[in-house]
Amino acid sequence: MQCQTIGRYQILAELGRGAMGVVFRASDSVIGRTVAIKTIRLDSFSDPAERDRLKERLLREARSAGLLSHRNIVTGYDVGEENGVAFIAMEFVAGQTLEQALRSRGRLDGDQVLAVIAQVASALDYAHSQGVVHRDIKPGNMMLAEDGSVRITDFGVAKLLSHQATQSDMMLGTPNYMAPEQIESRGVDGRTDQFALAVISYELLTGERPFQSEALASLLYRILREDPAPPHLLNAALTDRVSAVLTRALAKAPADRFATCSAFAKALTQSLAGCKNWQPLARAAAGTMATVVGPTEVVPPAPAVEPPAFTRVESRPRRGMRVVLLLLVGVLIAGAGYWLYPWSPAPATVTQTKEPPPTPAVDESRPSPLAEPVTPAAQPPAVQTASTVRPNPSTGPVSGLVEIDSNPLGAVVRFDNTKDQCKTPCSMELSQGRHLLHYSLDGHRPGTLAITVPQEGSATMRLDPMRGTLLVHTTPPGATILLNGQAQKDTSPATLRIAPGKYKITLRREGARDYTQDVEVRDETITQVDFNWP
Fold first, then answer.
1. Do 382 and 427 form a contact (C-beta atoms < 8 A)?
2. Which CATH number characterizes residue 502's domain?
3. pLDDT tens by residue, 200-254
4. pLDDT at position 529, please?
5. Residues 469, 282: Cα–Cα separation, whole Å
6. Are 280 and 206 found together in one domain?
């Protein structure tokens, strides 16, 4: 900004830069008060439509601020345009944004977190009562004043509920804090801002955002379809009651959330009151804690050394008479025990149990050495439609036959890192210990299941079909949607969950020419089609 004045405002210093313009600290030459001036240099945009859009955004912020008068909302004073620069003058707040505070300090203390959530909730409920939905609640739009108060700023994408939405209103907001209804361009209300406040609350308490991804399409998919990790698994000081409150406020359907932002803030405060000595975590601190459990549990590797046999037996009911008899005749049958069982009994040097080391005969998966010798039976028959896979002898002694299944059937299952595999339903002979079963089926997402042998004798996994999301918007709405010539039940705007692949999409409206476009839908991604009829 080369000029030293804008309108009647004397520029004093630059406060920050954003995606669309610069914010300055300035002085009102008429009444002498310090203000913040947000500017957009319109003459730097060659596209007239873009200039009009940015100017409309600034005017929308001024209109929204003009409707609101609340101690936790930055007050707007003036709006104008001069020499190709559009500007809005607003209350100057000495302090820093919540985003700046988290970057510099890492986290807030517990009392600050509760104060921020309560004050922002109160301000949002007031705005909603005046027919204004902010739609871009995020740490960068929350000012922490030096006096300890919080002020919401930047109503540039706010929706005035008394005004009809325009095409430019679609998909506005910051992706990390957007509610599902924003992503799908459905109707928004105060519960949309509540969702964003819940995302911020989750982040303040755990140090992590509930929905994260480097790729925008993947991030939007997770907001639409996936549930975040319960907060009490990230911050061990929290309880499942805290998780229940945040889960409700982060519900995909607005109707499932709290009625107001203040109701959410009150419920969260009450749930935190039941947490002993709780403290928020700094950003990314959860990843360094031993108590962390992410959205998908990481299965620990199998132990390198097989545990002593007696440690498995202790989990089963003991038969007193059999133990006594074994103690009396242990010496006599030692040789027979080795003959019947090719593996070695439990090491005699283990002393951490008061029970005498049992002989291998105690393993009830084998015949008792006191019983009459019997001819070894054949392997148990597998299901008639199944195949039985015997692993390579190098994998260790066989300990159990595991029945493998999947929903739907026909999945190829490979265990651990070997080449042995079968197609469900089938059976596998697996050595004692922990194993990973890797499932794959065309058109479905692969999956991995952990089992422990011999404790678990069966394993079944549900495989989810691959699906992508196709968002269709038209102006005007109500267009018929055809995919590869087949009409869909929903008209635009619509969110279609379809199998990955290449499609020819046709948009049809009575009295207008058809619009046709080739699109490719990929698994767990969002593809958007927009078309405006002239």
1. yes
2. 2.60.40.1120
3. 999 999 999 999 887 788 888 889 989 999 999 899 999 999 999 999 999 999 9
4. 86
5. 34
6. yes
Number of neighbouring beta carbons within 10 Å of residue 240: 12
Tell me which of 91, 112, 141 is where a domain ends: 91
Residues 203 and 225 in one domain: yes
Contact between 226 and 232 (Cβ < 8 Å): no
Q: What is the DSSP letter of 163?
A: S
Question: Is 52 part of the annotated catalytic residue set?
Answer: no
Cα distances from 260 to residues 53, 122, 266, 486, in angstroms, run: 31, 9, 10, 42
User: Residue 422: what pLDDT?
Assistant: 93
CA distance 380 to 372: 21
pLDDT of residue 528: 80
CB 210 within 8 A of CB 225: no
Size of the chain in residues: 534
Q: What is the pLDDT of residue 209?
A: 92
44 with 74, same domain: the answer is yes
CA of residue 260 relative to chain centroid, distance: 23
Residue with tokens 């839908």: 521
Does the pTM surpass 0.85? The reply is: no
Dihedral over Cα of 433, 301, 412, 422: its sign: negative
Same-domain status, 458 and 513: no
With a CB cutoff of 8 Å and minimum separation 6, the contacts of 458 are: 402, 403, 404, 405
Please check whether residue 191 lies inside any domain of the structure.
Answer: yes
> How many separate domains does the chain show?
4
The pLDDT value recorded for residue 161 is 45
Domain residue limits at 522: 468-532
Task: Give 53-119 as a 3 state SS string.
Answer: HHHHHHHHHHHHHHHCCCCCECCEEEEEEECCEEEEEEECCCEEEHHHHHHHHCCCCHHHHHHHHHH
Q: What's the confidence (pLDDT) of residue 345?
A: 41
> Is residue 523 in a domain?
yes
Whether 306 maps to a domain, the answer reads: no
Same domain as 511, residue 403: no
Contact partners, residue 43, CB within 8 Å, separation at least 6: 84, 85
H or E element at residue 437: strand 433-440
Burial class from Cβ neighbours inside 10 Å (0-12, 13-18, 19+) for residue 160 reads middle
506 in the same domain as 454: no
Please give the Cα distance from 22 to 230 (Å, whole number).
Answer: 39
Using DSSP bridges, classify how beta strands 76-82 and 34-41 pair: parallel, antiparallel or unpaired.
unpaired
Residues 262 and 401 in one domain: no
Q: Which position among 28, 125, 136, 363 bears the catalytic label?
A: 136
- Stretches where the chain sits below pLDDT 70 are 1-3, 18-20, 42-47, 50-51, 57, 60-67, 156-174, 284-399, 524
Is 199 domain-assigned?
yes
- Domain check: are 128 and 81 in the same one? no
Q: If we measure between CA atoms, which residue out of 254, 118, 114 comes closest to residue 190?
A: 254
443 torsion bin: left (phi>0), alpha (psi -120 to 50), beta (else): left
